Amino acid sequence: MHTATTQELRQTSVLERSRQIKWGLMYPAELARDVDAAVEQLYSVGSKINVEIDYPEYLELSRQFQAADVDKKALELKKKCPDATHIMCVVKYPNQYAEVKRLLYKHGYITQVVQLKTLKRANFSIYANILKQMAAKIGDDLYHIKFSEEI
Fold this sequence. Notes:
Layout (H helix, E strand, L loop, with lengths): L5 H5 L3 H7 L1 E7 L3 H17 L8 E5 L5 H14 L3 E8 L5 H9 L4 E6 H5 L3 H13 L15
Parallel strand pairs: 1-2, 1-3, 3-4
Helix pairs in contact: 3-7, 4-5
């Protein structure tokens, strides 16, 4: 199966692109409820700002964050979903951010790392920003997203 390149993705609209993008959601096991709620909010907000995303492949980390676990889950995603291009990773502590980015980058994934404290205080604006940043990483316009008429 063909994996879309960044150049190919940039030549399509956001809605066409979102149907092509497969993504994983990596998180520590104890954050499962927070992650489930976040995914529902991402879909809700995405429908209002016309940024559609597919359901992610869930990649649950062990209770205690370890770099080897992140690496293992990235390899697991390649096997489960070879077309995956993005991984969003929820981390508990700010010092995990750079290491997660580094590990996932070496596997060739476009990453969006979000701290748990951000998800816990997230509102429409924060979820919209997460989605816009994900879209921008594949070449979409970060600042000019079309809103639905209900907003």
